[in-house]
Amino acid sequence: MSQAPIPIDLLIDARWIAPVDKPGVLKNHAVAIHQGQIIDLLPLGHALQRYQAEQRTSLPEHLLIPGLINAHTHAAMSLMRGLADDLPLMTWLQDHIWPTESAFLSHDFVLDGTRLACAEMLKGGITCFNDMYFFPDAAASAAAEYGMRAMIGILTMEFPTAYAADGEDYLNQGLAAREKWLDHPTTHFCLAPHAPYTVPDAIFTQVLTLSEQLNLPIHCHIHETRQEITDSLEQHGKRPLQRLAELGLLGPAFFGVHAVHLDDNDIQLLRQQGCSTVHCPTSNLKLGSGIAPLGQLRACGINVALGTDGAASNNRLDLFSEMRLASLLAKGSSGDPSALPCAEILHMATLGGAIALGLEDKIGSITPGKAADLCAVRLTGIESSPCYDPLSHLINVAGRECVSHVWVAGKCCVRDSVLQTQAANRLEASLALWQNKLESRRKVQKP
Predict the structure, then answer these.
(1) How many C-beta atoms lie closer than 10 Å to residue 112's C-beta?
(2) pLDDT at 181 over 80
(3) If you compute the radius of gyration of the chain from its CA atoms, what whole number of angstroms results?
(4) Is the pLDDT of residue 447 over 50?
């Protein structure tokens, strides 16, 4: 006697599926989803026999991948997109970004800026982002409003702002925001000391204690510029990573962002301590910071994730661009066209990000038991024809405009390239107001 079909919420079938945690691409398979979780991945014919889905989505021209994970951004800085371009990092920060933040930083600024970022990221297949910015409660509110998964950083630094007075105040406010969102299913928190050049030893020690007590990852800019290393040698007599190692910060819970200027000792230190890094190739090139030694990091077995950085320094929150650029830079800088094949680049943008964020048991691959965070990429039309290898097309041909559907915890957030939240309809008017405010300040400042 045949068994009755199992009722489920959703069945998604696609021409190709890339699970990521297993090699290769599956053809004509389906993902069974119930109560926001993946419960099965199997051939379509078997799926139709085994499951009775309340809803079915068929993607006959698509590659289905895990939702992309933007492992480092400053989401609210989307309101400063293009505000100051073609400048080195410290000039960009000190003369433009920090003064603008001083004038406008507020809960509403962060709320609207993060809403803009969420809309852009979702349409580009990003289902989870790791944020480092002020007013974390506002960022969490925006992510929840758009249905995104977010890792919200508990930022700390010694610089006083409209948000906090000193390092300890930053931590206290961030911890209060975490307590408020503790039970929210798609909102997670990490500790986010800004950088070794803005955080003193005493605050780093507090960060380490909190990480151990609350089991929170630590997210920090590290070795982004040569000047950062020079200043650390002058002030502390050691390179920034060595300083953090001596303070006890490095370990599997630590992920360093940028990691551009690394010597052999730095790389071995990251490997020995089991740290992850986050590669932000576009931002690093645009700010003239350099090219991270991606091939060396991966050859040493160091986990690498991908990030966009903020839209003020990129100027896109686009992981398709980052995947292709990361691939090309690795090949061009090494002289090895086989460096970092497409499957490894996709791993960096999905499971590598989940590992860095400590969420690998929840997201990052199409695996039964994980959340149904998924992205469908249409590979059809003149621009995508012919298609011999869908993973090659994903990295070398497709752009974020090819994303047709996005799900977070089984909920469809983008359908046929259209955002499904009504919140997006209210965004345009708020953005116009912020642009007028920031533009007025720029005109007043001009001589």
Answers:
(1) 22
(2) yes
(3) 22
(4) no
